[in-house]
Structure formats: structure tokens, C-alpha cells
Amino acid sequence: MATVTSHQVTSADGTVIAYERSGDGPPALIVGGAFNDRRTAGPLAAALASEFTTIAYDRRGRGSSGDTAPYAPEREIEDLAAILDDIGRPTHVYGLSSGAVLALEAAAAGLPVARLAVFEPPYSDGPRTSDDYLTRLAELTAAGRRGDAVELFMTEAVGVPAEAVPSIRQSPAWVPMKAIAHTLLYDALVVESGAMPRERLATISVPTLALASAGSPPWLREAAAAVAEVVPGAGMGIVDGGFHDVTPEVLAPVLSEFFGAGH
């Protein structure tokens, strides 16, 4: 098992961002989505550690990272810039869901990304949530109603059927999901209306691979395909997986092949 070392960087606004390194080889950074932190990134990091120095971090407001108000998605790009500066060399980046949106924005901003892989950035042609979704999510968060915030996010933003929520509330995953619920508003702001920033993404100049799960709804697969169309020279792949999810056992070989092509 690869040795895991803990690190901290200070972002541009003074927020401390915690991350872990493991493995040996070219650096590969994992940018998680909603409900994700460096703990949930651990299995994928471990699966890649035989070929890469993997970096998993706590996005602001999560785990051991700080959370400086006011929040803005631009602060998360600054967080990535601080981590990449600490790594000190061009880094492969993998982002999933809202983390894929951040990874794409980081590449478009010219951060030192070597190769970029993104899994189902939740872009859509039109709003997929109600007009008052952000307001309701903010109100639930401010009131400390974490469980209700999680339920709202899952049913409106993710598209989980309402009838599936009671069983999810009884699952072991519910406690850690509630613990990170205050950051769901951040994910919502990262995605905003869901519209793809085509002009910005068209400026990305690094090799890019857009991925989607065979088990996801069509709109998420279409979003990945749209990224592949907009980013110059990007590829597109469908992997075996579930609803907006793919296991490290399936994903790691795909990332290893794509990232490894740059060496």
C-alpha cells in the first residue's frame, strides 16, 4: 500500500486547503463533486497510486480545509491554483460532476494542467431545477436542516426519484452526506444554471477526455458528449457504471491509459 502524506496550502483569500499525496510517478489530482472529500477519493487515489502520485483534497468547507466567507466559485479555482503551485509541475486532473466543472474552468483559466479527464459535468440545455431551488437550498442550509438540504439536492439537482429517498436516509451513507450538506450550496453555485460556458471551454488547449456512465440518464451522457464537441481535440468515452457513478476498478484503468499517454 502506498504511503499517504498530508499537506496544506494557503489559497489566495487565506483559506487553508488540506490535501493528501500517495504513490509515485507523474502527479494526478482528483477534484471531487458533491458529497466528496479526500476520504471518498481515497479508493480511486489508491487504485492509481502504482503509476501516479495521486493528490486528493478537501474542497473548501469540507474535511480539514477552511471555509472563508463569502463563497464564490472563483475561490475554488484559486484553491486549485494553490495546490497545483505546491505540486510544482504540470499535473493530470480528473474531475467528477461539479468537480468536473471546476476542472474544466481551471484548464480554461490556464492553470498548469497536463491532461484533463472529466466525468459527467452536469451541463444542460435548460434549467433542471425549479426557479426557487437555490433560495430553498440556502434557507435549509441556514436553518441547519441538513437532511432536508440533502434530500432537496438529490431530488432536484441529481434527479434521484423521491420514492428512493427514504431508503437512502436509512443507509450508512446518510450520516456523512449530512455532515457535508452545508457545501451543497457551493456545488449548486458552481453549476449555476447548468448552461455550458462554450466560449471558455473552447479555449482549453490540453488533451481532454470526457467520460460518462452507461447507467446514467441520457442528459448526463449528452453533457459529456457536448464537452467533447466543444473542447478542441477532446475525446469521449462511455464506461460501465451506475447512476452518475463509476467504480475505481472500472475508472482507474481508463485514467491510467489516458494520463499515461502523456509520458
Relevant terms:
263 residues; alpha/beta; Rossmann fold; 8-stranded mixed β-sheet; 8 strands; globular
Radius of gyration: 17 Å
H/E series, N to C?
Answer: EEEHEHEHEHHHHHHEHEH
Number of domains: 2
Q: Specify the CATH architecture of the largest domain.
A: 3-Layer(aba) Sandwich
Class per helix and strand makeup: alpha/beta
Treating each run of at least 4 consecutive H or I residues as one helix, how many helices? 11
Give the strand content: 15-25%
Number of strands: 8
Distance between the termini: 24 Å
Low-confidence stretches: none
Mean pLDDT across all residues, rounded?
Answer: 96
Fourth-tier CATH superfamily name of the largest domain: Alpha/Beta hydrolase fold, catalytic domain
The top level CATH class name of the largest domain: Alpha Beta
The name CATH uses for the topology of the largest domain is: Rossmann fold
Overall morphology: globular
Give the strand order of the largest sheet, numbering strands 1, 2, ... along the chain.
Answer: 1-2-4-3-5-6-7-8
Sketch the major β-sheet: 8 strands, mixed
Helix content class: 25-40%
Protein name: Pimeloyl-ACP methyl ester carboxylesterase
Domain AB hydrolase-1: 39-235
Pfam family, one: Abhydrolase_6
Organism: Rhodococcus tukisamuensis
Summarize the structure in words.
- This protein has 263 residues and is of the alpha/beta class.
- The chain folds into 2 domains: 4-126 and 194-260, Alpha/Beta hydrolase fold, catalytic domain (Rossmann fold, 3-Layer(aba) Sandwich); 133-187, no CATH class.
- Helix content is 40%, strand content 19%.
- The protein is built from 11 helices and 8 strands.
- It has helices at residues 42-48, 73-87, 98-108, 133-142, 146-158, 165-169, 174-179, 184-191, 198-201, 218-230, 248-260, and strands at 4-10, 16-23, 27-31, 53-57, 91-96, 113-119, 208-213, 235-239.
- The longest helix is centred in the N-terminal third of the chain and has 15 residues, at 73-87.
- The mean pLDDT is 96.
- This is Pimeloyl-ACP methyl ester carboxylesterase.
- GO terms for molecular function: triacylglycerol lipase activity.
- It comes from Rhodococcus tukisamuensis.
- One of its GO terms (biological process) is glycerolipid catabolic process.
